[in-house]
Specification:
The chain is mainly α. The chain is built from twelve helices and no strands.
C-alpha cells in the first residue's frame, strides 16, 4: 500500500521540476530535526537554512511563508506517515470482516495498543514535534495546528471510531452511544499513557513497563466498554 506522502511526491513530480522538489524534500527532512530539537518558537529561519545547507533566501524561495509554512509542511509530512501506519494497524488487527471471538477481544486490543505505542520509537522525530506542539500551542499558528490535526489525529480518530462501532455491532462492546469518546478513552489509557510516561519518547520505557501499562489500560477500557455477557472465559 502506497503512503500518503508517496502520492504527494507523485503529484509534485508532475508540477515541480525534479531538482526543486529534491531540494524541498531535503529542507523538510533537516527542518524536522531542527524543530524536533528546538521547538517552533526557538527555531530560527537562519538555523533551519543552515541545517539544510542553503541560504535563507533559498529557503524563502521554496517556502515563501517562512518558518510557519515550513513547520506546517514538516508536521503534515510526518503526521501522514504516522497516520498511515495507524490506519494499517486498525485495518489489519480490527478487520470488520474478521471479528474476534469474545475470548480474544482483549488480546487483539492489546495488540492494537502495542502497535500504536511502538510508533513512538519508530517515528521519534514526529513525536518530538508533537511534544513541542503541545508545549508551545500558544505560539504555533492556528492554521498549522489545524493542518496537523486534520492530517493525523482527526482522521485516525474517525477510523478508530468506525472500527470500535463494528465491534459494538458485533456484540463485543457497548460504546454507550459515543464511539468517538470510547476511542479517546482507549488511546489515553494505552499508547497515550506510554507517550506521557516516556515524555514523548525522550525517556524510553523498559519493555515490561510498557507492557504493564498497555495491558492495564486495555483492561480498564474493557471494564467500561465490554458488552455484557461477553467476558472472556
Amino acid at each position: 500500500m502506497s503512503s500518503s506522502n508517496d502520492a504527494w511526491i507523485e503529484r509534485a513530480r508532475r508540477e515541480v521540476p525534479p531538482r526543486k522538489l529534491e531540494k524541498q524534500i531535503a529542507i523538510v527532512r533537516q527542518a524536522c530535526r531542527v524543530f524536533g530539537r528546538e521547538g517552533y518558537a526557538r527555531a530560527s529561519v537562519d538555523s533551519l537554512a543552515a541545517a539544510a545547507g542553503v541560504s535563507t533566501r533559498t529557503l524563502y524561495n521554496h517556502f515563501p511563508g517562512g518558518k510557519a509554512q515550513l513547520f506546517q509542511t514538516v508536521i503534515t509530512w510526518t503526521a501522514n506517515e504516522v497516520r498511515d501506519a495507524q490506519l494499517a494497524t486498525i485495518h489489519t488487527l480490527l478487520n470488520p470482516e474478521r471479528l474476534p471471538h469474545p475470548d480474544n477481544l482483549e488480546r487483539d486490543l492489546v495488540a492494537v495498543a502495542r502497535a500504536f505505542a511502538d510508533l513512538i520509537t519508530d517515528y521519534p522525530d514526529h513525536f518530538a514535534l508533537v511534544r513541542h506542539i503541545h508545549a508551545e500551542a500558544d505560539h504555533v499558528p492556528a492554521e498549522v495546528l489545524a493542518a496537523w490535526r486534520e492530517a493525523g489525529p482527526a482522521s485516525v480518530a474517525a477510523a478508530f471510531a468506525v472500527a470500535l462501532t463494528t465491534l459494538a455491532d458485533g456484540g463485543l462492546l457497548d460504546l454507550h452511544g459515543n464511539p468517538e469518546l470510547a476511542g479517546i478513552h482507549f488511546t489515553v489509557l494505552t499508547s497515550g499513557l506510554v507517550l506521557q510516561t516516556s515524555h514523548y519518547g525522550v525517556l524510553p520505557l523498559p519493555d515490561d513497563v510498557t507492557d504493564r501499562l498497555l495491558r492495564g489500560g486495555v483492561a480498564a477500557f474493557l471494564r467500561a466498554y465490554r458488552a455484557e455477557g461477553t467476558e472472556a472465559a
